[in-house]
Design goal:
It is a single chain. This protein is of the alpha+beta class. The protein has one domain. A 5-stranded antiparallel sheet has the order 1-2-3-4-5. Helix 1 packs across helix 4. The chain is elongated.
């Protein structure tokens, strides 16, 4: 199952606005990106690491994932916590690879309510 958080993180790496992955233009916007090759299992594995990184007590511990069935892989590294627009936020470094496609970047996730993380953009 592709959750919005997983789609958002991968969409961000692909240079697409948050949750735009649900639009009809998903395939065109993500062409030649890791997300265009991800299976539901790939998204689930990445999403698990994103959630772990957002809640990790320390900075800098790279959380890697790999789907042996598809060969897709990636890592999520928790970075600093900050307050932005009155919200508790955290920066993550996210890198993904699927086939010949790869992408990476640093992204800011914030919580309006505890535990409800949302991508607010690349950092």
């Amino acid at each position: 199952m592709k959750s919005c958080l997983a789609r958002v993180a991968v969409a961000a790496i692909a240079g697409v606005a948050a949750c735009a992955a649900h639009s009809a233009g998903e395939n065109a916007a993500m062409k030649d990106t890791p997300a265009s090759k991800f299976t539901a299992d790939d998204f689930a594995l990445m999403n698990q690491r994103v959630k772990q990184a957002l809640d990790a007590p320390n900075e800098g511990e790279k959380l890697e994932w790999r789907n042996e069935k598809t060969g897709a892989s990636g890592s999520v590294t928790p970075m600093n916590r900050l307050t932005w627009n009155g919200m508790s936020c955290r920066r993550l470094q996210i890198a993904n690879k699927a086939g010949a496609a790869s992408g990476q970047g640093i992204y800011k996730f914030c919580q309006k309510t505890p535990g409800a993380w949302k991508l607010v953009g690349p950092d």
